[in-house]
Automatic annotation (TrEMBL):
Limits of the F-box domain: 109-155
SMART domains linked: CASH, FBOX, PbH1, ZnF_UBR1
Protein name per its UniProtKB record: F-box only protein 11
UniProt entry keywords in alphabetical sequence: Metal-binding, Repeat, Ubl conjugation pathway, Zinc, Zinc-finger
Amino acid sequence: MSYSTVRMTRQNVRKTKKKNLKRFVLPPLVNDTVVNYQDNGFCSPGRPGMCTTHQPPYDLRRKLSLQESGCPGSSSGCGGRGPGCNQVMIPRKRPKRSCSSADEVDAAHYLLYEIPDELVLNIFSYLLEQDLCRVAQVCKRFHTISNDTELWKNLYQSVYEYDLPLYNMGPCKYAFVQLDETENENPWKESFRQLYRGIHVRPGYQELVENNPERYSGRNIIYFDTIEHALESEEYENSLIFIHCGVYKGDYVIYSNVTLIGAAPGNVAENVILERECESTVMFTKGAREAFLGFVTLKGIYEENEISHNALAGVWVKNHANPIMRRNHIHHGRDVGVFTFDNGLGYFEANDIHNNRIAGFEVKAGANPTVVRCEIHHGQTGGIYVHENGRGQFIENKIHSNNFAGVWITSHSNPTIRRNEIYNGLQGGVYIFGEGRGLIEHNNIHGNALAGIQIRTNSDPIVRYNKIHHGQHGGIYVHEKGQGLIEENEVYANTLAGVWITTGSTPVLRRNRIHSGKQVGVYFYDNGHGRLEDNDIYNHLYSGVQIRTGSNPIIRRNKIWGGQNGGVLVYNGGLGILEQNEIFDNAMAGVWIKTDSNPTLRKNKIYDGRDGGVCIFNGGKGILEDNDIFRNAQAGVLISTQSHPVLKRNRIFDGLAAGVEITNNATATLEYNQIFNNRFGGLCLASGVQPILKGNKIFDNHNAVEKAVTGGQCLYKISSYTSFPMHDFYRCRTCNTTERNAICVNCIKTCHARHDVEFIRHDRFFCDCGAGTLSNQCQLQGEPTQDTDTLYDSAAPMESHTLMVN
C-alpha cells in the first residue's frame, strides 16, 4: 500500500472518531467496505475477526481470553456481528486472497494497529536518523516507538562513538551528561540534534558512504579521511569537526572559529591523538580567537613563544592533552598563566611565568603536568595553585616574590614539589590546607614573610629533606587539625618558632635538625599534639621545646641542647610524654615544669646543664621516672612554690649543687630513687617542707655547704651568684637589707657582728655580703663581685611571644 493510501485511510478514521457511529464510505480505492466506530475500537461487520480494541501506542500486546472477547450478556463471542458489538475478538486466521483494494486496507490497518510493537521497533532499527524522523510523522504510535532510547543510543554510538551523550552547554563548552541527570526524555536524540551539524574525520568512512549511497541515503553527514581535508573543505569555516579514533600526525593551522572535538569510546582523549615531533601541533591565528579544541591528546613542542595580556589563561591544557612547552614567556594575563585541568598533562621547561592576575600555574581536576626549571614569580595572587584532586611534578623551579603563598595545595590534591627555590613571598612559602596532601622534598624555602610551610585543616603532606630558613615569621606552622610527616628537614634561623603545632594538630616530626632560631625550636600550644622523634633541636634563643595550654605531644629520642632559655618548658597546663631524650648543655634548666602542668618524663638523660636539671615550680606536677639526671650546675631536681611532682626510680648524681631541693611550700613524692655524689648534698629540704619518702638511696654526697660553714668561709665562696646552696640565712636591719637580700651565717658572725640581725629560714640562697652588694665590704671575701640581687629560685624562663605575634 502506498504512503498516500495509508494517509487517506487514517484521515477517514479520524473523521469517524469525531462523529460517533457515523457511517461513511472510504475513497474508491477501498470499494464498499464500511467501517463502524464503536467506543472501544474499530469493528468491520463484514469481516469476522476484525473487531479490535484500540490500545494506546507502544504498549506490549497480550492475547485476550474467550471471555474477554465476548459481548456483554452473551455466553459466546459475537464475532464482531451486530450493531451492539464493542468488544475485541481474537483475530481468526485469514484465508489467502488475491491482492485487492480491500486487502490493502487490511494491510494498512494491520500495520498501524495490530503488528506488535517489538516487530515495529525491530523494523525501525534498520533505519537511519533522517528516515527515523520521517516515519515518526506517520502516526502517534510510530512517533512514540521511533523515540525509543535504545534505538537512538545505537544510532548515536554508530556515529559519535561516545559512551555517554555529549551536550553543547554553551560557546566552547562541551560536557558529557549522565542519563539520570538530564531533563530530556531521550538524551541520545537530544545530543544528536545538538551535534548533527558537524563534519567527521573518520578514516575509511568517506569511501564507505560513497560506495553505498542507498544504504546511507537516510544520513546527511560528511566524512573526511584526514584533518587537513576537513580544514580545506567548503564546510570548514565556523564548523564543528569531530575527530575519531587514531593518531594524526601533522601541523594544523586554524584560521576561523572552528570547534574540533575528539570522538571515541571510553576515554576519548586517550584514543584521539594529534602529534608532531617538532614545533607546534596546532596553531591558532588571530581569526580563531573563539576556536575550541578539546577531548584530544596533543603531542607537540611549543618553544620561545610570547604569550601575554590574555583575558583568560595564557595556556589551557585539558582532557589528557600532553604538549611540550619550552622557553616561553607567559606574562601579564588577566587570569592564570598556565591552566591545566580535567586530566591535562604536559611538559613545561624553562618558561618565564610572571605578573599574572591569579596564579602563575594552576592545576585542578586530575591534571598532572610536569614543570621543570621554570621561573614563576610576581603573581598577583600566588605562584602555583593545585586544587580539586590536582597532581603534578614541580622540579627545580624558582618560585619567588608572589603576593600570596608560593605554592598552594588544597582539596585532596597530591603534587610533588621537589628541589625548588621558594623564597621572598609576601606571605608564606608552601600553604597546604583543606585536606591537601603532597610530597614536599629537597626544596630551599627561605625569606618568606609568613611560615615557610603551613599545614592546616586535616591536610596530610610528606615534608622531607627541605631547608626552611631565615623566614620573617616561623619555619613550619601546623594548625587546625593539620597532620603530616615532617622528616629529615633542616629548619633554622627563623624569626619566630622553628615549628609551631597547635589547635588539635597531630603531625609526626622525625630526624629533623631544628636550630639557631630567634625564639623556640618546637612550640606546642592550644591542644597541639603529635610526635617529635629522633630530632636534633639546638641553639635557640628561647627553649628548645615549649608545651602549653592542653598540648600533649609525645617527645621521644630527641637531642635538645644549647637553648638559651632551657631545654624543654612545660607550662600553663601543658602535658606530654618525654622519653629517651638527651637534654644537655642548656643555659637554664634542662626541663621546666610550671603553672599546673603535668608531663611525664621517662628514661631521659638530662645532663651538663648550666643551671638545674629539672625545675618544677608554681604548682607544677609531673611524673619523673627512670631518668638519669647528672652533672648539672645547680640542683638535679628543684621543686618549689606549691608544686607536687612524683619521682620514681631516677638516678640523680654528680651534680655541682644538691641532688634534690624542695622549697617554698612545695612537696613531692620520692620513691626508690638513687641520689649520690652531689656536691651540696643529696636531699635538701627548706623550712616546713615534708615530702613523702619511700625506698630512696641517698649516699656518697659531698656536703660542701657544711664544710664551708665549719671552716668559717662565706658561702658565696663556694657558690658565687650562679648556685644557691641551702642553709640558714639572715637579714641585717642595721645595714638596711631588703627582702631580696640574704646573708650567710658566717658573715652574720663576722661582718655583721653586733648588728641588729634577723634569722629568716633554712632555704636556698647565695650570700649578698660575699657578693659585695651591701654597703659594707665582706671581711671573709677578697675583691667584691658585681651583682644586682639575690634570687631564691632559679631565674624564670622566657615564654615565647609566638602566640602574640601569630
